Amino acid sequence: MTIIIDPQASGIAGNMLIGAFVDLGADADELKEIMEKSAFEFGKIEVTFEKVSKHGIDSTFCHVEMLEHKHSINYGEFISKIENLDLDENVLETSIRIFRRIAEAESKVHGKTLDEVHFHEVGTSDAVADVIGSVYAFYSLGYDLQKVIGLPIAVGGGRVKTAHGTIPVPAPAVVEILKDANMVGGPVDSELATPTGSAIYMELCDEIKEFLPQIKAKNVGYGAGRKDFDHPNVLRIIESSDISESDNIDVIETNLDHLTGEEIGYLFDTLLDIGASDVSITPIIMKKNRQGSLLKVISKRERREDIINAIFKETGSLGIRIAPHMHRGIAKREFETKTFDINGKDYDVTFKIGYVNGEVISRRPEYEDLKRIAKETGLALREIEELVR
Questions:
Q1: pTM of this prediction?
Q2: Does the CA dihedral 156-160-162-166 come out positive or negative?
């Protein structure tokens, strides 16, 4: 399954994420309890969920009402209190990373160290509820085991009042948090992307794309924003079934006729080390019946120049052929580790599993694990392969 977080229409906020997760099946009663309990140390809150229609789109609104205001605290004190919450370790660690993203952005914007940063909006009880509620729902739905893709974020426009005065939209902290993400202004004169929502988005997404990739949507959840605009103020999250993916690659080739076997082996390892996706070397007959080798390297576009420079340096080649932007299909890949008892001792073996449309098409043990076990046990490699099937 692939998860698409789509904030193109109306930005992103913590409560919008939570609403969308509930729309997709997260337990609202459980979330209410977790959010209110976690935020209590920072101020009492009340969490409610309701179904609303945003310009004809049925969505879930998560309302977090602050019933008590406490003074802001510095980053160190804040994290210390978060660390003492009774939460699952994964939920806790992910939440702390999100708060660190926010604090580092505030630190850079205001020219302070982390220890000097005082949490205002981002340190109050409703923000704690938003972060922990989003992360808890994310894990409860099993999305941590899936690939998560983020689409461009609508950030709004105009100006907004904060604890630091009136500032432009998107707020400086939001711009800092969303570095390397795709942002677009508008479509309204209002703040659409909050620091909290932006930090959660950046932490949960494995990849950020400009457009929706080829998918087969299975379930869609909508989380409603608080404000009403002339467009649906909702965040969309899509669950899609696994499909084969595709990407653009470069195929880089050159002929070799003067390198020794050792030099070719060194070149092979060097190219993989600097980021080649695959390297192959094929014996060929060259002009004047000379024996040689064809070096073929598959490379991501961003690694192309490094790979070409390495080939020139290591081979002295006078010419390299490049077939740019070739299209390749790739199956979804996951890794699974299993433990096997071999000669009375437990050994971990990692398997690479390939999926197309949710169906397993291959399941192979990693060679390095098999080699390690063979060396330690003295058994033949083929015997280890039989034992872990």
A1: 0.65
A2: positive
